[in-house]
Amino acid sequence: MTTLDHRTLYRLPWTASDNVLSWLEPTNKCNLACDGCYRQNDGTHKTLSEIQADLDTFRRWRTYDSVSIAGGDPLLHPDIVEIVRMVVRDGHKPIINTNGLALTRPLLEDLKRAGLVGLTFHVDSHQGRPGRWKKKTELELNELRLEYAQLVASVGGLSCAFNATIYQDTVEFVPDLVQFAADHIDIIHSIIFIMYRAAITEGDFDFFSDGKPVKATPLVYAVDEATQRTDISAPELVGVIQQRFPDFAPSAYLGGTEKPDSFKWLFTGRFGFPKNGKESKVMGYVGPRFMEVVQNTHHVVKGTYLAYAPQWTLEAGRSALAMGVVEPGMRTIAANYARHLVRHPLDARKKLHFQSVMMIQPIDLLPDGRQNMCDGCPDVTAHDGKIVWSCRLEEYRTYGSLIQSVPKARGCGVASACGSTNCESKHGEHKPEKVA
Ligand code: SF4
Question: Is the Cβ atom of 268 under 6 angstroms away from ligand 1?
Fold first, then answer.
């Protein structure tokens, strides 16, 4: 675990009403069933008028740059091309979040013509993929990731990102995925690690909705007992990465609604050259000022914070070096670049690419039952004319409201005060007669 000090990073300025993204779900239907999924697959699609109503809800509540079109898997919606046009007409950048199974070149070309800006592929080893990719390990799936990235690059003009849900048994592969992304920094513009979370029904908490006790069992992300960790954190992943890449340096974050010093979204940006036979070359990591300048300049010029930069800007690293005037991280990158060109002068002709490594740390249940969510959640979706956390939409659909978590009373009966799972070590030997 590395020690990250939130006061030295740039706190992203995103709020509920002034953000970078909104999360549109035109379908619940999916062709996979990932372990960490938080959407009930009832096979239904929304109508185009329902989708327009969602876009109107986003417009009613906030300003934003891009729309993540997700689900389920949005490529399964029969009108996905028209949905992309609707987002463009609404004045936002459409990004499709897909597992890629249903993607074909002709469909991708149609989506690009409709105004698509980019794709985020969800690929990891807990998806139960069929066929060639059945039971493939996290690293064996790099072959699939490369296939998707090369398909997108061959169509051109589209940004390409990958996200992977990180589980207890895949934490160790994160540095390899960071290396894989660096090797293809020219066609993979972002890699996102999302930490696995689940609602443990037989765990340390009782659940309530509007004050009434409820069972979490109906929720797609409920599990009876914790068969694996549900508390992997962003600093932990940074620590694992820094064991391999000591200079790996996050620069911006979103805090938590209960713990402002937590890293709910953690952003790391870097510039470099892709692998050309021997090795890829990362020139360095941007500092906190980089994101501050980028976000606020976009807000001043466009009126919104920036979610997805146009693909051409991601390969314009040489001109970005000028930011070294105000940004120490860029100064280091410029110095490394100059030293590199002394040894490899021909590389001066090559483009310098930008890539982000993101981490998302969903809900953290605190020992006293408070729920630490992402403060300024970019992935809000529409529900009943309101904007809600998309990771908890199922609770509104199942109970009509979010569920609260209260520590279970156990052991010496003073748990309601301590709420501590290791009651015995805190309150001495278990005194069964006192159990309420
Ligand atoms: S609050 Fe939930 S939906 Fe929003 S960014 Fe965090 S994990 Fe995603």
Answer: no
